[in-house]
Amino acid sequence: MKKIVVLTGAGMSVESGLKTFRDADGLWEEYPVAQVATHEGWEADPTLVTNFYNMLRKKCWGVQPNEGHRLVAQLEEKYDVTVVTQNVDNLHEMAGSTKVIHLHGELMKVCSSRDVDDPRYIRQLTADDCEIAPGTLAGDGSLLRPYIVFFGEAVPNITLAAAECQEADIFIIIGTSLNVYPAAGLIQYTRPNIPIYLIDPKPVPTGSRQVTQIQKGATEGMRELIQQL
User: Is residue 225 within 8 Å of 174, Cβ to Cβ?
Assistant: First the structure.
């Protein structure tokens, strides 16, 4: 069975109604990155950060996977598929994808602020229980913080993602401008000469790699790609 690795960015979830962070009307326009997505911001005002992610979670539970998510999940009927996502939402899982690597953390989880990746203190939140009261403590006595990779922090799953990319027979990129590292560098881990497809409404520079670009949104682009595969 051929192995497909799908790298997705914010453009994957736009059709579900989630704003991208970087576009003109994106979330960073409303909330300065330094305040809500850095370790320094967390240290300075954990209440603001906690409430920001509470708000994001509520938005997330109010949306559904779009057809693009479902078409990615359907690839599993014929291929061994790993999704590597820069998104912190859980829409790939909701659509039925079974192997998802989150590079930038998971919005629906909270963790210890002393040791982010200690599995004993990572807690999965549900639709009925998606808000964390500011000041709530993890099991180790530190403040519960969002299970999100803040800007400037290491990306622990990048090694796992790179290993998957090295094994790919087909590499698909959806809804990312390939501007954010280390995720943008994953294309370099793929073997030479494998087919690489990029789905995005805007043209995306891809360096020296031979890439078939489909200038459409996630759903339309996935429909076209499935015809090509």
Answer: no
